[in-house]
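Hi L.,

You mentioned the student needs an example of a multi-chain input paired with its predicted structure. This one should do, with 1346 residues in total across all chains.
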Amino acid sequence: MAVTEVEPIVTARLGLPESWTLKTYVDNGGYAGLRKALSMSPGAIKDDMLNASLLGRGGAGFDAGKKWSMLAKGQPSYLVVNADESEPCTFKDHMLIEGDPHQLIEGTAICAYANGVTQAFIYVRGEFALGVERLTAAVNEAYDHGALGRDIFGSGFDLDLVVHYGAGAYIVGEETALLESLEGKRGFPRIKPPNFPAVSGLYGCPTVVNNVETLSYLPWIVINGGSSFSRMGEGVSAGTRLFSLSGHVNRPGNYEFEWAKATFRDLIEHPRLGGGVRNGNQLKAIIPGGASSPWFGPDKLDMALQHDVVQKAGSMLGSGSVIVMDHTTCAVRAAWRIVKFFHRESCGQCTPCREGSGWLEKIMIRIEQGSGREEDLELLLDVCDNISPDITWPPKQTTICVLGPSIPPAIATSLNMFRDEYLVHIKEGGCPFD
Amino acid sequence: MTDQKTEQEQEKETVSIVVDGKPVEAKPGELVIAAAERQGVYIPRFCYHPRMRPVAMCRMCLVEIETPKGFMLQPACYIPVKPDMQVITTSAKVKKAQDGVLEFLLINHPLDCPVCDKGGECPLQDQTLAYGPGESRFVEEKRHFAKPIPLSALVDIDRERCIQCDRCTRFAEEVAGDPLIEFIGRADELEVNTFPDHPFASYFSGNTVQICPVGALLARPYRFKARPWDLEQVESTCTSCAFGCRVAVQSSSNALTRYIGIDSDPVNHGWLCDMGRFDFEAVNSADRLGKPLMRKPGAEGDEDELVQVSWGEALGAAADEIERARSVHGPGAVAVIGGARLPNEDAYAWAKLAKAVIGTDNVDAQLGDGLPAELVLGLPRASIDDACSAPAVILLGPDLKEELPVLFLRLRGAAINRDMPIVELAPQRSGMSRYCRTTLAYRPGEAAALARALVEGSESDVAGVSAGAIAQARELLEEGAVVVLGRPSLAESAESIAAAAGALAKLPGVRFLPALRRANVMGALDMGMAPGVLPGRVGLAEGRDWFSGAWGAVPPSRGLDAAGILAAAAEGRIQCLVLLGADPVSDFPDRQLARRALAGAGSVVALDTFLNPSSRHATVVLPVASYAERSGTTTNIEGRITRLGQKVVPPGVARPDWMIAVELGARLGDDLGVESLEDLWDEIERLAPSHAGVTRAMLADRRHRDGVVAPIADGRGPDAPPSGAAAPDTGASETGTTEDGAIEELKIIDPMGTPGLLATAAQGVPATGVAAADPRDLGSAGHGDGGPRPPLLAFSAPTDYTPPGVDAYSLRLVAHRTLYGKATLVQNAPSLAHLAAPATARANPHDLERLIAGGGSRLRVRSRRGALVLEVVADAGVPRGSISIPFNAVGADAGELIDATRPVAEVRVETP
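Structure written out for the whole complex:
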């Protein structure tokens, strides 16, 4: 296991002067993928996508090619780009949008062409002020360049692309809530089954929903072929992958490298990557795949950063966000902070999440601030259980969407790993890290 | 109608599922929660409502359903049945989920049950008891909001109690079409509220209170008025308009406290409008008449005044006035206006008194705001369900949202859910227009020409409507249509609309649903309370022999309608005018004529519940029992006969109208031959051809709890069950004739939306309406002594009608009613009275620009009859050349401009 020497794909142009402009993009091979795609049949692109084994990079990790193949026949159909990246410590799409918006636009156009879509939307997180500015400018440039609009590059293919700004709700990153919001409604997730976007999505029509990073790989895949992509990585964890590393490391940031070859230790300690835990501190825990994933202890450091390996170990790589906590971190406070986030972001639609998130946060505050009771530990787990029965992995749910079941992992794993720390809070009537 | 068969066949198909190990037959597409419930497995729920789309938000109905991944917790309210589906509702897993959801719902619920209106009939209380945890583990501070804040003038919200089930918000958007309340905020701060400065001003807001599963939504007229366990109740039918919504009338300490909508599948689906729901306050009013009054000379030679007298003196005086008029000037000198307020039995008694005892045919239950009785009774009739399942509807009538609000809901639902095309013929846009495929805005007075063009086609524009628009509308009608027929404007004569109906009757297979608004107007017409007709939808000529035999006499010739009576009275030809719950000064479109008539009538005998602008001038005023103070039956627009319940006693010594008829009959020397409501109904069933076979037993039968549509063999086959009534062999819970009206047999569609009905089941609610007698065979032979039963009125096209030419200097007046106005019930219901908007005229922006050239928006509107000064605002929904003025609004009144003898009112508009 090691960090391999492969050329980055989606971050290749980042760092070039004005990498977000059409000029830089085209000077560096931009839109060649779309030109090639337009010379191919849509079916051929879709077949090649199956070869690529490109897992969706939004968090759920579903094969993008398979997702496309499930799109129901019927016109109109839509493509919606999920650019509402809002998960704490996930900031990869943010960077791609700000740094290389044309790559996203090109990928979007390729996906639309492959799926016979002529109307696409990018639902972008409204707080990305700079990203929104550069993306909007890029879309305008792309229209002028002939990469969007009528008769793209003389191929006869038409595509309109609308950039829509989100209004600040994490839940709208959930694809069906995103569709509701895009339709102008309150961002409540739809009930799945039966409301799968591939069958009944935007305005009730078949809809492809893909993540920013996922689509950003498409120009490369079209030019180099799907099998070149799947030759990298390991099994379903194919290609390169962009990880957002944050927390107590010396070099937090976004890092793209060949997937499934490196370990958590590589990511955290490699001098070109995390560069080690800050101040030489001891590693306490890792949150391997975003705020909703179960935590790992230092014993998992040598585990491969690989989709199915992490899954089997009881957690997930999710959106590719790795959070590192050193020994100065209060596990209770860290878990509370995560619960607080989900409480604030619960849409309120269904009872267990609406009420449970607030209740759990209140208990966590009490424990952290020294008013906890020993029975609160069992209570925490039972309230979690009422949101996500049996607190299993992957989680079950009494809720409509997966936001509710995203709350228990932080509580359950921190309590499991650091029960003594909880008890100290309770017995000493305060936080020992204060 | 060919589709109907396939629908029936489809209905017979069933899907077999297994619920808790027991096989259950479900309908294709049925939701698990509904299929289980029919088999007696009640799955707890809060957000599910069978009349609205499921949202699966509360998660209370989670059950285990088998999926390819094994048994999973799924919302039973959202998942449709599939063949061989396995459902488990009682496992430990389900129990834990239900426990958990209830605990979640309660953590932020204030538990202020002792001061909550809902306490005692609260689904949250009930289901917590049945399914919830015993104790709370929640020791944190609960969520806080300011205690009730107003959503509208009628509804408050206590957001602390709200469990965010989306019932009210869904109702507002989905059923009422008034999306004025929404979720705001998120997580446990999620609240239902209005948008800033936009109150929940919906005509249907009270329904949200009824379907709220907790005490979050509070009706101001009921708040803190009673505890549910102190309420008594009876089933009845709302008579605030003629649609016939079923209600539970609830009272406490002999005062009405609340109406609850009952889900009658063929009629109201559980919904009520706010006027119907809250105008019970008028019944409780301290201003009700409780003692007979007689006009007597004032002390020291002051003006005459009405003073309280005994029944004996008042009845004697009334009989004397009638007798004097009849003996000196002939029976035609006596006239009776009104009767739509009366139950069927009372209307029959009065028809018999007037036509047989007094001998006058100058009788009219309508007040010039309806349509000729022969037309209404003779047209092939459609039911409400017929209209809502028709290939298309032609709407030529009033603004249904204002006059028959729940019919508006039903047709709106059909337009949205079935994509049913509605073609609206109207002089201005209405509340229904946005749900109509097309609105043909015609020049007032020219409805008939437009109707003819719609049937026959037209190469040129007609009545201001383009030939293209007419052609497009015709395409929508190719598969047949039901016509909803009423008066689009009180300034356009009934003859014009009758002629339009005559034209539309030529559409193949067409049927008509009358859109007449006044309470039991259809029953009154059925009972013969109109000139030229006799009870049972029989013409005077055709029924002469039959009723002469039974009654002894009938009037010699057709009498006058309300307009004719008032004109005759104004000319001094009516010596005794009986106002049977009628207030022509307020309600007759031609105000000036009504005032002259009351001044010109020799004497006026008024039977009423309040002193009103008409009865104030009466010689004798007889106080009568009002709604919920008397039993009987009522008939809605489709001819559905349902029973009225009595729950409180009338004020003072007020009596039902039928008793007064009997008393007057006796004093006029003729015994009506009836002593009770039961006698009256038996006589109606025996003599009125349209009501043959509609026995008391049938009406009392629980299978017919939605009522019986008369006539019962209306071309639907001799053995067909009454339209809209359940077939005799369905549903175990609906069988059997009962006299005790056991409320647990109520077909409760939404157990949480009919608070009190379950809670009070044990109290043994008394039967409503007439008591049951022995069942008789359907279609029993008549018992009249005058030969064979006469035929029902058949439709004959009215004489055609030519509208007046257009006067380029005038605007044509459109006069329309609004839901809240000067009506007696509204004005005597304090919660509603202030909702009446002040009168404003509306004109097309193009016309208005011309009219207010001199500046100022207050203008004088002048007709041959009179003039008004009022605010005029721009409204593109009013076509050019017309001006719209409300008829019953507070302040200026279109009735001052209308001349009943003119086909359409034309007005000049000028600066005051």
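You could point out the following to them. The mean pLDDT of chain B is 90. The two ends of chain B are 58 Å apart (CA to CA).

Best wishes,
N.
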